[in-house]
Amino acid sequence: MSLPIFSLRDKTILLTGGAGLYGRGLAAMLADTGTTLILASRDVAKLQVVAEEETAKGNRVFAESLDQGDEASVVALHERVTAQHGPLHGLVNNAVLRPMKGVNGAAEQFAESMRVNATGVMLMHRHFGMTMAEAGRGSIVNIGSIQGMIGPSYELYTGTKMGDMPPDYFFHKGGMENLTRFYAAYYGPQGVRVNNLAPGGFFNNQPEPFLQRYCEHTMLGRMADETDLGGAVIFLLSDASRYITGVNLPVDGGYTAK
């Protein structure tokens, strides 16, 4: 049975990132929906490889340059995309910069993180959300983190050499959750929905002591893989979620519910 309300076919979606830990899996799943998918980040060469791999499968995927921390770059991308494809139907704010490597990282690193991950995300909402609102439709999905909802669990790292946790990530992911609510209220009357996803830990060959502790803390007993986020993103981009906005949705195997 076909359910057209879940379809993204004939829509245009912009995904920032697209070659990283979350992004590559999202790119593959979004491309397979039949949408026109635009990938954007600073490393266009990596995105071009992804675009070519997906195009070889018969999907419509394009790579574009974006420095999210530079408003001129955001504006230029908006102008190019709008000229070629018209107002977006969907935007997935997935790109993230991780300049701080620990609690004692330099203040300049914290400021750089905010320039890209806070101010930059706001600019994406401002410029792309504006033309969605003018068109009277659209969906923005922000990729946050459960680290924007909870404090650090230092006990997970005991006996590993994974390092400590940087404060910038907790700060800007927490801010992203409430920025979502702000723009959901601002754009809602024009038919644009804005929601936040809060992924849990992603399996990336972490040390066994960490893996065991983390998995025991989830209800499903495992970390996420590259296919676990895409379904929720596709749902929130589609008309199946047309009455959902301003929501923070944990996609974490039950980590924050336990």
Summarize the structure in words.
With 258 residues, the chain is α/β, with parallel strands linked by helices. The protein has a single domain, classed as Rossmann fold (3-Layer(aba) Sandwich), CATH 3.40.50. The chain has helices at residues 23-31, 44-55, 71-85, 107-135, 167-187, 208-217, 230-237; strands at 12-16, 36-41, 60-65, 90-93, 138-143, 192-199, 248-251. It has a 7-stranded parallel beta sheet with strand order 3-2-1-4-5-6-7, sandwiched between helices. Helix 1 (23-31) links the parallel strand 1 (12-16) and strand 2 (36-41).
Q: State the secondary-structure class.
A: alpha/beta
**If classified by CATH, what would the architecture be?**
3-Layer(aba) Sandwich
Strand order of the largest sheet: 3-2-1-4-5-6-7
Beta-strand residue fraction: 15-25%
Topology order in helix (H) and strand (E) letters: EHEHEHEHEHEHHE
Indicate the overall shape: globular
The whole-angstrom Rg is: 18 Å
CATH-defined topology:
Rossmann fold
Task: Summarize the amount of helix as a percent range.
Answer: 40-55%
Write down how many β-strands occur, each being a DSSP E stretch of 2 or more residues. 7
Mean pLDDT: 96
What is the domain tally?
Answer: 1
Q: How many helices?
A: 7
Low-confidence stretches: none
| Main sheet attributes: strand count, strand direction, barrel closure | 7 strands, parallel
Terminal residue distance: 36 Å
Task: Report the CATH superfamily.
Answer: NAD(P)-binding Rossmann-like Domain
CATH level 1 class label: Alpha Beta
